[in-house]
Amino acid sequence: MWPLGHVAVAYLCYTLATRARFDAPPAHVPALLLVLGSQFPDLVDKPLAWYLLVLPTGRSLAHSLLLLVPLSLALTLVAARYGRSEYGVAFGIGALSHTFADVLPALWDGETTANQLLWPITPVEPYPGGPPTILGLLRDSATDPYFLVQFALAAIAFAYWRRHGYPGLEVLRAAVARVRPAPS
Predict the structure, then answer these.
(1) 36-50 pLDDT per residue, tens
(2) Is residue 182 part of a domain?
(3) 54: which strand partners?
C-alpha cells in the first residue's frame, strides 16, 4: 500500500475508535500522531532495506508485531504518564493499521505472505534482483485493483476528515506561523 492509502486506512480506523470510545471525532494532536504512525513502518524499513541494505526487505523490522505492539504499548504508557495516553493510542492504531493493510494481499494472491508480521521469527524473502525503485513500484502497481482501491479509501477518509473539521490542520498552521518570519 502507498502512503496515501495508509493514511486513509489509519484515519478511518481511528475515526471508528474515537467514535466508539468517546463519541467524538479525532482530536488535533492525536490525528497528527496517527499520520506519523501510519507511515512509521515504511519510514524505518524502506531506508534500512533499500539504501542501507541492513534489512532483508522494506517490510520486516518495523512491520513486525514483535516491534509494533511493544512500541505502541510503551508510547501509550509514557504518554499516559503525562495525561496524554491518546497520543500513544493514535500512533499505535496508525502503525498497526499500516502493517495489517500491507498483509491484505496475502489473503487473495498466492505470491504475498504475511511473514513480516512475526519477523524475525518467520523469515521474509529478500528482493530477488535487489531493492525496487519507487518508479518501478508505481509502474507495477498502476493497474492493480488494490492500488486503485486506495484512492476510494482516501476520498472517504478525506470526507470524514473534512466533516470532523480537519483535525491536525490547526496544529500545523500554528507551527508554521511560529517559524514563518513576521511580515515587515
Answers:
(1) 999 999 999 999 998
(2) no
(3) none
